[in-house]
């Protein structure tokens, strides 16, 4: 029998941290502004706890399924769609797969909008350095010179998404994506640099906060009426449920899975809180100016910002084909085709998905709104509902279901549904 490779708890913890940390970091200061300082910290804690609890239930249900539900011969049965097939039947499996496709597509749309943004500002920086102009650079956006050929060809929400499609196109048609998996560690470097970036900028700025005077540009409410925007994006920020079983299976000491997963979630929550709250408190302009991509708050020629954009752009350039590969497998599987039926099928699917991404980058390039709707919908299904239904179904098969279990695991999906509905009442 093939022996599963194991790793120490510390490696497992940081693998989860690296996997969970993503582009949500860029929107955390914006999220703090939407919810208010006190409420955002509360939401970081509560949403992290709920996501941790349902992730732990996934692991618990998988172990019970392998041991007691006729799956002894296959210890690898157990990611969400497979568990739904075993415990909830074909409808549950379909819901799990469709929701997974929605989350992956939403992630790719967000990545594409960000890559367009980073590509635009990076090329603009190079152009300005090569061809200096006597123009003033504002804080947020490069000032175009009317009539310039460069400025007609290089527009953030018009031409750049199309140029990006030409760059990405050749990278999406490979049968295997092992080349891109070699760059996974780049995500750790990007996240660590972003944390360092925020620390350095915040120390340089100092505190700029006012809790008492609403007419002050530094006024920072403890609680804001738009808190649903933050609660909407956090399920995606804490989402690891589709692969948590695979990640924890490699932990050397399986008795420490709950502890190690809790530590990993704690580190992720602390990182989000550090980046979001610290940046928000120290931002030296009006708090309402904070963009849903924190790098947009800096001048194009700021060296640390240029490096950050380069880091994250290269990271997303390697992650995007991986997500596309996962999407391809799931969509073709739903169509009862193999993962690479033909080059024509793959190119047609890639054109369709990239076309959707380009459309959002051109007509709706709002990272905050995309994060909160994707997070709220995907979270409602994959984080709040399916793990609870799986746990209830497992308890029924074990003949130990109690009314307390039903109540608790009904409240969690209801919370996710309310969170999703609340997104339609957020004032962007």
Automatic annotation (TrEMBL):
Transmembrane segments: 12-31, 37-55, 94-114, 154-174, 186-207, 227-249, 261-286, 306-327, 339-364, 370-393, 405-426
InterPro entries: AA_transpt_TM
Recorded topology in the membrane: Multi-pass membrane protein
GO molecular function, one term: L-amino acid transmembrane transporter activity
Subcellular location: Late endosome membrane; Lysosome membrane
Keywords from the UniProt entry: Amino-acid transport, Disulfide bond, Endosome, Glycoprotein, Lysosome, Membrane, Metal-binding, Sodium, Transmembrane, Transmembrane helix, Transport
Amino acid transporter transmembrane domain location: 8-414
GO cellular component terms, A-Z: late endosome membrane; lysosomal membrane
Primary location class: membrane
Pfam short name (any one): Aa_trans
Signal sequence residues: none
Family to which the UniProt record says this protein belongs: Belongs to the amino acid/polyamine transporter 2 family. SLC38A9 subfamily.
Protein name (Swiss-Prot/TrEMBL): Amino acid transporter transmembrane domain-containing protein
Organism encoding this protein: Bemisia tabaci
């Amino acid at each position: 029998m093939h022996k599963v490779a194991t790793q120490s708890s510390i490696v497992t913890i940081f693998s989860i941290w690296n996997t969970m940390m993503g582009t949500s970091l860029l929107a955390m200061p914006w999220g703090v502004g939407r919810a208010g300082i006190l409420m955002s910290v509360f939401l970081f804690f509560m949403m992290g706890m709920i996501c941790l609890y349902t992730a732990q239930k996934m692991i618990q249900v998988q172990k019970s399924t392998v041991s007691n539900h006729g799956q002894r011969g296959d210890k690898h049965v157990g990611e969400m769609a497979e568990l739904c097939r075993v415990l909830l039947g074909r409808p549950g499996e379909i819901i799990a797969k469709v929701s997974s496709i929605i989350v992956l597509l939403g992630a790719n749309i967000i990545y594409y909008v960000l890559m367009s943004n980073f590509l635009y500002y990076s090329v603009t920086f190079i152009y300005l350095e090569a061809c200096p102009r006597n123009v003033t650079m504002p804080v947020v956006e490069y000032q175009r010179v009317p009539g310039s050929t460069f400025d007609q060809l290089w527009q953030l929400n018009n031409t750049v998404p199309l140029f990006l499609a030409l760059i990405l196109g050749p990278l999406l048609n490979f049968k295997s994506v092992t080349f891109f998996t070699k760059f996974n560690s780049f995500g750790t470097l990007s996240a660590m640099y972003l944390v360092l970036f925020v620390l350095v900028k915040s120390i340089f700025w100092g505190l700029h906060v006012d809790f008492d005077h609403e007419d002050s540009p530094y006024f920072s409410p403890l609680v804001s009426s738009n808190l649903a925007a933050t609660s909407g994006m956090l399920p995606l920020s804490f989402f690891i449920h589709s692969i948590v079983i695979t990640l924890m299976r490699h932990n050397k000491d399986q008795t420490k899975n709950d502890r190690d997963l809790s530590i990993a979630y704690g580190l992720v929550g602390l990182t989000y809180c550090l980046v979001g709250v610290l940046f928000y408190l120290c931002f030296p302009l009006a708090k309402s100016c904070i963009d849903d991509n924190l790098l947009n708050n800096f001048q194009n020629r700021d060296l640390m910002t240029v490096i950050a954009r380069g880091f994250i752009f290269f990271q997303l350039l390697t992650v995007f084909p991986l997500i596309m590969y996962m999407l391809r497998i799931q969509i073709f599987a739903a169509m009862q085709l193999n993962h690479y039926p033909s080059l024509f099928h793959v190119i047609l699917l890639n054109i369709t998905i990239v076309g959707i991404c380009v459309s959002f980058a051109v007509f709706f390039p709002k990272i905050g709104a995309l994060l909160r709707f994707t997070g709220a919908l995907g979270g409602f299904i994959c984080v709040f509902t399916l793990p609870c239904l799986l746990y209830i179904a497992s308890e029924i098969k074990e003949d130990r279901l109690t009314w307390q279990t039903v109540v608790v695991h009904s409240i969690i999906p209801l919370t996710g549904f309310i969170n999703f509905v609340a997104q339609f009442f957020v004032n962007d």
